[in-house]
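Annotated sample (chain length 146).
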Amino acid sequence: MGVCMENEPTPSEGNDPGPFYHGTKADLKPGDLLEAGHSSNYGERRQANYIYLTATLDAATWGAELGVGEGPGRIYRVEPTGPFEDDPNLTDKKFPGNPTRSYRTREPLRVVHEILEWEPHSPKMLQEMRNHLEELKRLGIDAIND
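Output written by the structure step:
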């Protein structure tokens, strides 16, 4: 019997059928692999131990809009190449049951195609989220990366 930590992720074991998306500023092509180990798009930009995916276009939109980098935000339909688990950054007591259907994996994600039709958040919502992320940074609260 293991000890369950408050933010310990729950293995999803493929229970979510997808489709899955990844929002980023990177310009990718079908067949490209997104892999963990690059600088995170958020927080202190430490090396990311995971790559993130979601089954909702809204969550992918935040990734496309808030990701670090030049150029337009992009959303890709992706396929996990291995097991994935609930993202503990979005599944603590504030979000029981993973309503954003956000996951993380140590295995690469394969790009299927780019989603060209997606609705950006309003400038007001985007600014509110940036303010919130800036406040977390100021408080020293960084993403769970282990």
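Annotation: The chain has two helices and seven strands.
Annotation: Confidence is low (pLDDT under 50) at residues 1-13, 40-45.
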